[in-house]
Specification:
Blueprint (H helix, E strand, L loop, with lengths): L1 E5 L4 E6 L2 E6 L2 E6 L5 E5 L2 E6 L5 E6 L2 E6 L2 E6 L2 E3 L1
Parallel strand pairs: 1-9
Antiparallel strand pairs: 1-2, 3-4, 3-6, 5-8, 6-7, 7-10, 8-9
């Protein structure tokens, strides 16, 4: 699936991934390849990008929203930094 992570200042990440783990306002959840359409609010916490089944990248995010539609996840966050 295609993942895009956007902040007000820049595009932080764009590429094909296996999935992404996000800090929702009610707890962690994962979005994997071919997930059903979804819109969710995100809290402050750690986002885990699952590049494939063995490689991960981590980002600290300040909260925002995620939209999943047609095998594309768009993460809009107030701020983020790679960990």
């Amino acid at each position: 699936m295609l993942l895009e992570v956007l902040t007000p200042e820049r595009k932080l990440y764009s590429g094909e991934v296996y999935g992404v783990q996000l800090p929702g306002i009610d707890g962690l959840f994962e979005v994997l390849d071919r997930h059903a359409p979804l819109i969710a609010a995100l809290g402050k916490g750690r986002m885990k990008v699952l590049k494939d089944k063995t490689q991960n990248e981590f980002y600290n995010i300040e909260g925002g929203f995620v939209e999943v539609y047609r095998n594309k996840a768009t993460v809009l966050v107030e701020g983020a930094e790679a960990k």
